[in-house]
Amino acid sequence: MTGSQRSMTSRRGFLRYTGMGALAIGSAGLLAACGDDGGSAAGKGGAAGALTKPTRFRIASAPGDNYFLDQVNVSEKQFEAYNLQIGKLIFPQSGVQAMQLLAGGGVDGMVQDPILTMASYVNGQKGKRPVMVGMRIPETTYSIVANAGTDFPDDSASFEDKMKALKGKRVGVAAVGAGSDQQLKLALEAAGMTYDDVEHVGVGQFASGIAQMKAKRLEAYVTVTWATTRLAAAQTGGRVYVDFLADSTPEVLRNQQVQYFITREDFLEKNPAVIQAWLDAQTEAKDWVVANPDKAADLLNKTSFDGKGEQFAKDYITHFTDVVVPKIQPDWKVPKDAVDFMIDIAVQLGTVKEGQVSYEDLVAESARA
Question: Fewer beta carbons within 10 Å, N or C terminal of the chain?
Answer without folding.
Answer: N
